[in-house]
Amino acid sequence: MPYISQGRQVPRQVGLSAGSDYRCRQSAGGSASQGGRRRFGGALDLDEVIRCTGTDMTPAYHQRRQQVLARVPETAEAFLVLGSANVRYLTGFTGDSTWLLLGRERVIALSDQRYQYQLAEECPELEARIRPVGTQLLDWTIEVVQDLGWRSLAYPADRLTVADWNRLREALPQVHWEAVNGLVEAERMRKDESELAALREALAIAERAMARWCATVRPQDTEKELADRLDQLMREEGAEGASFPVMVAANERSAHPHARPRRQPIGACELLLVDWGVDMGYKSDLTRVFAGRTISARLRSAYEAVHRALEAALAQVRPGVKACRVHQAAWQALSEAALGDYFLHSTGHGLGLEVHEGPVLRPKNEQELVPGMVLTIEPGIYFPDWGGVRLEEEVLVTASGCEVLSCWPRELRCLWA
After folding, report:
1. What CATH number does the domain containing 197 carry?
2. For residue 93, which of 107, 79, 109 has the smallest C-alpha distance?
3. Is the pLDDT confidence value at 395 over 60?
4. How confident is the model over 353-374, as pLDDT tens digits?
5. How far is CA 371 from CA 35, 96, 333, in A?
């Protein structure tokens, strides 16, 4: 799914830059890779989409908390952590409506009675302060800080509302507040082995569901019916849910990068764009375009241009490369085909506990890629009077280049013979 931010009929090999290393995860039968290196010859049989269940491993929550604390100003006694994904990353707690006081000597979850047993099950080593019914989370935070006697706290200025910030200052005038931004999010950009296992599992489930879905598509199906069916198939394959509402868009509707499926039959469509992903705690995110009964000349031309942009972007993904450079490579490839003005969004984004994480691959983003980042690469072009074409892969930044995690074929396929 593209991050909107203004500002395989593919026998060719990716044009690699010097020192880069472009790899794909091994598929069943070796049909999509050979010796671990991406090979584009031949289609991947839909029955051979790999079954990846991940590795059973426990995330190192204590280590993650220590890494975040190392970023907190030394003068702060604790750091107030907001955001369900951030709390989950540091503790393993999967609920919501919970903040975390990350201290140097103690870590305290601030939650309510709905989650007291869940916290005990998921985070038995964690101290929890459960607020009474009728007490707001912000007010409970104030009470706990007063009780602890802390005099200096770091807070996430990019997540706290102005109203909540003013309330904290008024209620805790004795506390020195230090504003910080993106401390947990910066750590979340680099995935550890447990996170990579979860991401691979979410991706494999998405691909298995798509393999089943392709065999069910009929011209009389509406976009909404097809989106709901793919959502159901993902759950049948083991998904906790969808990463985001499944997008199925036919013909001119696919010119909307975030189209909502209509209750309208797709008919003998010229093209059908599908953007889907699985939520297993960690998310997957893929996009493919299909032809109807035949591949029109316009669709083939647009598809090949987008594929060239995808290859150009992939060739840039390696440690030390700035995020804006990846976007520039995709945009330049489309501009050379006189299509740059039809590229309406960034080239990709980070992926993890949230479907849109940092870094965003967009113009002016000078952040450098580092090993362990998992990104989407998803160039697209959109014509309001005709439709849109987007191709999206998931990639892992490695020590020497990148590994393409997704194995779904990139051939432009017809839905019906």
Report:
1. 3.90.230.10
2. 109
3. yes
4. 999 999 999 999 999 999 999 9
5. 21, 30, 25
Within 8 A by CB and 6+ apart from 223, the residues are 248, 249, 250, 253, 261, 262, 263, 264, 266
The 3-state secondary structure of 141-170 reads HHHHHHHHCCCEEEEECCCCCHHHHHHHHH
Alpha-carbon distance 2 to 393, whole Å? 11
**What tokens does 67 get?**
């890494």
Q: Are 399 and 319 in contact (CB under 8 A)?
A: yes
Main-chain dihedrals φ then ψ at residue 91, nearest 5 degrees? -130, -25
258 shares its domain with 204: yes
Distance between CA atoms of residues 344 and 3, nearest Å: 10
Between CA 413 and CA 295 the distance in angstroms is 8
Nearest-angstrom CA–CA distance, 141 and 91: 18
The answer to whether 250 touches 259, Cβ cutoff 8 Å, is: no
3-state DSSP assignment of residue 381: strand
Q: Are strands 152-156 and 78-81 parallel, antiparallel or unpaired?
A: parallel
Q: Same structural domain for residues 263 and 288?
A: yes
Say if CB 274 and CB 392 are below 8 A apart: no
Residue type, 338: A
The domain boundary, picked from 173, 188, 203, lies at 188
Instruction: Name, in order, each residue with C-beta under 8 angstroms of 7's C-beta and a sequence gap of 6 or more.
Output: 362, 363, 364
In a domain, 226, yes or no: yes
- Per-residue pLDDT of 312-365, as tens digits, reads 999 999 999 999 999 999 999 999 999 999 999 999 999 999 999 999 999 999
Q: Which domain holds residue 107?
A: 61-188
DSSP string, 239-259: -SEESS--EEEEGGGGGSTTP
Percent of the chain with pLDDT over 70: 87
